[in-house]
TrEMBL record:
<dbReference type="InterPro" id="IPR028082">
    <property type="entry name" value="Peripla_BP_I"/>
</dbReference>
<dbReference type="Pfam" id="PF13458">
    <property type="entry name" value="Peripla_BP_6"/>
</dbReference>
<dbReference type="InterPro" id="IPR022478">
    <property type="entry name" value="ABC_transptr_sub-bd_PQQ"/>
</dbReference>
<keyword id="KW-0813">Transport</keyword>
<protein>
    <submittedName>
        <fullName>ABC transporter substrate-binding protein</fullName>
    </submittedName>
</protein>
<feature type="domain" description="Leucine-binding protein">
    <location>
        <begin position="104"/>
        <end position="369"/>
    </location>
</feature>
<dbReference type="InterPro" id="IPR051010">
    <property type="entry name" value="BCAA_transport"/>
</dbReference>
<comment type="similarity">
    <text>Belongs to the leucine-binding protein family.</text>
</comment>
<feature type="signal peptide">
    <location>
        <begin position="1"/>
        <end position="29"/>
    </location>
</feature>
<keyword id="KW-0732">Signal</keyword>
<dbReference type="InterPro" id="IPR028081">
    <property type="entry name" value="Leu-bd"/>
</dbReference>
<keyword id="KW-0029">Amino-acid transport</keyword>
Length: 411
């Protein structure tokens, strides 16, 4: 059941439009002038946001915890931006949000939604898959903003499921592209004990094979039973010792120890992976391609920097809004058709148009390689080519994917 007080509705009035005119005009720049000023008012299109709250580990080294509103604030900004853009065509959007606690039945929460046609999901992979398989979800468009599991884009893909957050395969492909470009091809891998750590390590090994790098040795590290903050100088000497290597890669998605690897490896090598130099959909240092505007708007409503799941939440609602603008309609069936059209593209402040892959529903997008204070590079890295688009060098390409739920084979 949905927890008491967890259900809330957000709407955005036209009073915000004046603040967001530059964004609105940029979104409509490709529309014919005559159509852009012709109102096509209709009923508001309701977008649902459904989140499973998960228990987070205590942050290491007194770092800021993952905010409770991660994802939700991005969705809220997406609604504001979509309303600011849509008002020029008489289009409007509403947002119905539900957050359920650990242990509650997310399937019942989905069934309780008044209109299930567009649902943004901020939930683990098991929940995403369970919802996609519900009979009540057959006519839905589900947009995954939080589960990076590659299997959801592979054998466990579903036709009603689109993925806005990059997969683990996309993230590790971006990282290994940069390592190969720099000829740092010998990788010593340290993997944590959590299930997500193993999945990240497996993705990194696949990327190494794909781009000609090599895992020279893999060691396991379990931080349980001690305080790594006090013992890092000694603790990491053994797990980071091995054959000659260029970087130490860490798979520690929970952040239980990875940050303390910096400057504590047996040999003086860069730390990359989930900590150190890390691939991500978004981050605080991203400013190019007018991203500083998005960062500023987000900080105004959230009071903090935009995180990857926030960006994915914003992007999910923004994509629905852009599909409505292109269709000049808020009719759900018409918007769904526009979103699924082979030529559909949408901006995401990443320097190029983004689009959903026809074979697995994944949003094509660049991936940033981030050091805490700066963007080191943006993948795909120069020189990695593809017959369709270089963006398809990141993650599962069509011949690699076991997804058979989608009928499209190109685009």
């Amino acid at each position: 059941m949905v927890s008491p007080g967890a259900r809330r509705v957000w709407t955005c009035g036209r009073s915000l439009a004046a603040l967001l005119l530059p964004f609105a005009f940029a979104s409509l720049a490709q529309a014919p002038a005559a159509e852009a000023v012709t109102p096509v008012a209709g009923p508001p299109l309701t977008i649902h946001y459904l989140e499973r709250r998960v228990e987070r580990p205590v942050p290491l080294n007194n770092e800021d915890p993952i905010p409770d509103d991660e994802g939700a604030k991005g969705v809220e900004l997406g609604l504001r931006d979509s309303n600011a853009t849509g008002r020029f065509l008489g289009l409007s959007f509403g947002l119905d949000a539900s957050v359920i606690e650990p242990g509650d039945d997310i399937r019942q929460a989905f069934r309780d939604l008044a209109d299930r046609r567009f649902v943004v999901l901020n939930a683990p992979a098991a929940d995403v898959l369970a919802l996609a398989d519900l009979p009540e979800a057959r006519g839905s468009v589900l947009l995954n903003i939080a589960a990076p599991d590659t299997r959801l884009r592979d054998a466990d893909c579903r036709r009603n499921l689109l993925h806005v957050l990059p997969s683990r395969a996309m993230l590790t492909d971006a990282l290994v592209q940069l390592l190969a470009f720099k000829r740092w091809s010998r990788i010593l891998l340290v993997t944590g004990p959590a299930p997500g750590d193993a999945l990240y390590a497996e993705a990194l090994k696949r990327s190494a094979r794909k781009f000609g790098a090599r895992i020279v040795v893999e060691s396991r590290y379990d931080p349980q039973g001690g305080d790594v903050r006090d013992t890092a100088l000694r603790e990491f000497a053994l797990p980071t010792r091995g054959p000659e290597h260029d970087v130490v890669a860490v798979a520690d998605e929970a952040g239980a120890f990875g940050a303390s690897l910096n400057y504590n490896t047996a040999a003086p090598r860069p730390v990359v992976g989930t900590q150190g130099l890390s691939p991500a959909a978004w981050g605080r240092p991203v400013e190019a391609w007018a991203a500083v505007q998005l960062q500023g708007r987000f900080r105004k409503i959230a009071g903090r920097p935009m995180r990857p799941v926030d960006w994915a939440g914003w992007m999910a609602v923004h994509a629905i809004g852009e599909a409505a603008v292109k269709a000049r309609s808020t009719d759900p069936a018409t918007v769904r058709a526009a979103l699924a059209a082979p030529g559909f593209e949408v901006g995401g402040f990443k320097g190029r148009p983004l689009s959903f892959r026809a074979w697995d529903g994944q949003l094509r997008q660049p991936v940033f390689l981030l050091w805490p204070g700066a963007v080191t590079a943006t993948a795909p890295i120069e020189g990695y080519l593809h017959h369709r688009t270089e963006l398809d060098t990141l993650g599962l390409d069509e011949p690699e994917s076991a997804c058979r739920a989608f009928s499209g084979t190109s685009g």
